[in-house]
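Query structure, 263 tokens:
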């Protein structure tokens, strides 16, 4: 892909596509990954490709719950590793929690590639400026202490069978709050049934994932994860969250988009 001028209205979207295409050629993604991304882009069009006020509130609620939980974990698949892996590592460092690679189409090669990618991203984040108010000298050690789980398939999610049930015994299996930045209805439902706080990022407000979760951020994953890092530093308080209203807000924005079509 040639250089995209900053003035291009869809620069961020085109860059995301290029990242995923390259990652697919390197074997990081399942064959269906680009289809899933395209489906999400369609919803993002209707959102105006921006983070809504309602999504910002959901991000703050998610930050509050991740910080309040005894054991939090950020679950990552191929797409989210490629699009928001760096932000996920940064968020995990602020929270003091691990990230876990958890994929359905699991092969030793894909797992090794994704974990290696996250290890490289962790080095990048360790060399970045720390969040406002954090000690510059301690930040690299804090980032480098973020565990990257998933290589050992030694845990199980009760209520699921087959590859979907595999997880880390030190991550999703024991966590009481799980951030799932992708659509995954079966896993979301099982985690909720186990009594875990399930916090998701999903551009489709009608999906089973969005409707089952305790908090749903209806937003594009890289935008949401970037804002989540800022919200975590602010240490917001847990509120009386109405997730149904958040989903209705997102659907309202999408409905308004259709009214902008010239008659």
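Result returned for the query:
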């Amino acid at each position: 892909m040639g250089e995209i001028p900053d003035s291009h209205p869809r620069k961020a979207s085109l860059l995301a596509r290029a990242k995923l295409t390259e990652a697919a050629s390197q074997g990081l993604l399942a064959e269906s990954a680009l289809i899933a991304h395209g489906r999400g882009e369609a919803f993002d069009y209707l959102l105006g490709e921006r983070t809504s006020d309602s999504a910002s509130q959901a991000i703050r609620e998610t930050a509050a719950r991740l910080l309040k939980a005894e054991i939090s974990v950020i679950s990552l698949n191929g797409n989210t590793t490629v699009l928001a892996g760096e932000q996920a590592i940064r968020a995990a460092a602020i929270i003091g929690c691990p990230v876990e690679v958890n994929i359905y189409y699991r092969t030793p090669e894909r797992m090794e590639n994704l974990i290696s990618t996250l290890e490289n991203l962790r080095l990048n984040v360790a060399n970045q400026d720390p969040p406002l108010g954090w000690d510059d000298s301690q930040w690299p050690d804090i980032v480098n202490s973020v565990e990257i789980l998933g290589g050992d398939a030694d845990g199980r999610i009760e209520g699921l069978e087959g590859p979907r049930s595999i997880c880390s015994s030190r991550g999703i299996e024991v966590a009481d709050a799980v951030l799932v930045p992708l659509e995954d209805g079966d896993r979301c439902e099982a985690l909720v049934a186990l009594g875990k706080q399930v916090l998701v990022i999903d551009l489709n407000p009608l999906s089973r994932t969005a409707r089952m979760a305790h908090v749903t951020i209806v937003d594009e994953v890289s935008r949401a994860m970037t804002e989540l890092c800022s919200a975590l530093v602010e240490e917001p308080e847990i509120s009386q969250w109405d997730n149904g209203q958040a989903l209705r807000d997102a659907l309202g924005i999408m409905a308004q988009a259709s009214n902008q079509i010239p008659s």
